[in-house]
């Protein structure tokens, strides 16, 4: 069996790994064994962060809707319940955008919902 020298391959793998750790501090950037573990953890944190981002955005939309609805003497809970009863199928992202960028249209929606419940 012939001898296989892996220097070039290993160097390329290490270089690829160390390029992923650019911007990290101290030995996490320089040492291959530490860098490998750091990259694995970074991937896990990134996955978690993507999930948390969705949660944070929904929380922001709800708070914006709540603030706008409270100015019209309704609670967020009453507004969402009335929306469902009046069969208006707008998601929270759209409602929050309307509340911030187009208050007149949002007011029309609130009035329509209020008329349906009374």
UniProtKB/TrEMBL annotation:
InterPro entries: Ribosomal_bL20, Ribosomal_protein_bL20_C
Highest taxon of the lineage: Bacteria
CC per GO annotation: ribonucleoprotein complex; ribosome
Pfam family of the protein (one): Ribosomal_L20
Signal peptide as annotated in the record: none
Recorded GO MF terms: rRNA binding; structural constituent of ribosome
Gene Ontology biological process terms in this record: ribosomal large subunit assembly; translation
Transmembrane parts of this sequence: none
Keywords, ordered alphabetically: Ribonucleoprotein, Ribosomal protein, RNA-binding, rRNA-binding
Keyword Ribonucleoprotein included in the entry's annotation: yes
Family matches, as SUPFAM superfamilies: Ribosomal protein L20 (SSF74731)
Function: Binds directly to 23S ribosomal RNA and is necessary for the in vitro assembly process of the 50S ribosomal subunit. It is not involved in the protein synthesizing functions of that subunit.
Similarity-based family: Belongs to the bacterial ribosomal protein bL20 family.
Protein name stated in the entry: Large ribosomal subunit protein bL20
Native species: Candidatus Gottesmanbacteria bacterium GW2011_GWA1_43_11
Gene that produces this protein: rplT
């Amino acid at each position: 069996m012939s001898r296989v020298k892996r220097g070039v391959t290993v160097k390329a793998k290490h270089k690829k790994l160390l390029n992923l750790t650019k911007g990290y501090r101290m030995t996490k950037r320089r040492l291959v064994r530490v860098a490998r573990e750091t990259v694995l953890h970074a991937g896990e944190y990134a996955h978690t962060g993507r999930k948390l981002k969705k949660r944070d955005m929904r929380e922001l939309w709800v708070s914006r809707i709540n603030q706008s609805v409270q100015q019209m003497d309704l609670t967020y809970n009453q507004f969402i319940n009335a929306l469902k009863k009046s069969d208006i199928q707008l998601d929270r992202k759209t409602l929050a955008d309307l509340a911030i960028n187009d208050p007149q249209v949002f007011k029309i929606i609130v009035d329509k919902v209020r008329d349906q419940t009374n």
